Input
Amino acid sequence: MHRLGGWQHRHPQAAIRLGNFDTRVAGDAIARISVDRPIYIAGIARAGTTIVLETLAAHPAVGTHQYRDFPPVMTPWLWDRWLARVPQRAETAAERAHGDGIAVTSRSPEAFEEVVWMAFFDAIHDPQQSNVLDRTSSNPEFERFYSEHIRKLLAIRGASRYASKGNYNLMRLAYLQTLFADARFVLLIRDPVWHIASLIKQQTLFEAGETAHPRALEHMRRVGHFEFGLDRRAIHTGDDAAAERIRQLWADGHEVAGWAHYWATVYGALADQLDTDAALRDACLVVRYEDLCGDAEETLRRVHAHCALHIGDDERSRAAARLRLPGYYRPAFSDEEYATIRDITAPVAARFGYGTDTVDTPP
Output
């Protein structure tokens, strides 16, 4: 995995050529498959995107990337043919590296399409320049490859609808809608106090893990996971001053203020998109993490309806039973840190329905 993942990361053009060969091999199998109403799940990490992905992936019509698709993400057809011919050992679900109680196997859904984006867009994670892709963006080679890649995944999974978790897609929503006019977007947001507490917890965990295991850092870079760890990079929303402020706060060790500005900058940019683009707004469903956990059945009903996925009441009830607010940690901020978070995030939080009656306060 380390060697193959490294080769793919260092040689994107060769990986693209192999991906095109993979498509030719899969030609007959995907000839009649189209990309129908793809579903995109996005939000700042720790907002509930993984559990929503898992919930939607349980639907028989939905196909996603899986853990076992890495490293050869660019050649899913040939890789799947290979896996079908080698012995598969029995698996027991194990908690993922985030330490959040979510157990996975090699067949669990995961966010790997970022590997494809990085192969075609050199600066897509450059913190010094805008990471935004909008309706004016164009990359015909990527657009063809990406559509073919999705069609191959649908053929492999025996599915008719593609679902993707990609947190960086928050700044690509309009571009994705130009590629797939019928795309559906489910966008997750979380109370900033609890959200920032979870983000800081993950940053500490990943820094320690990558320090102890350097290959873990390389893996995170290769899969396009820059939210946490030793190579943490803020999404550049097109605001140079905001990007530099976040970078400097983190560099100076001001984690709370840095994350608060990051939360406000990213979700503020999202709110601006939704306010000014009616077509995009109609395709998006914003889901608050607190509603997802606190009123799970009704929230999942709205999610499935938005995505045009039929699900029975019993199935929805079983899915809802898995959702609950975390009980394994609580924010441990000082009064000054609580005030910092509220002061920085409150104007943006209010745009998503958070107010003094909903934002968590010190215990």
Notes: The domain at 2-351 is CATH 3.40.50 (Rossmann fold). The chain has a mean pLDDT of 92. The chain has one domain: 2-351. The beta strands are 39-42, 62-63, 94-95, 103-104, 161-165, 184-189, 284-288.
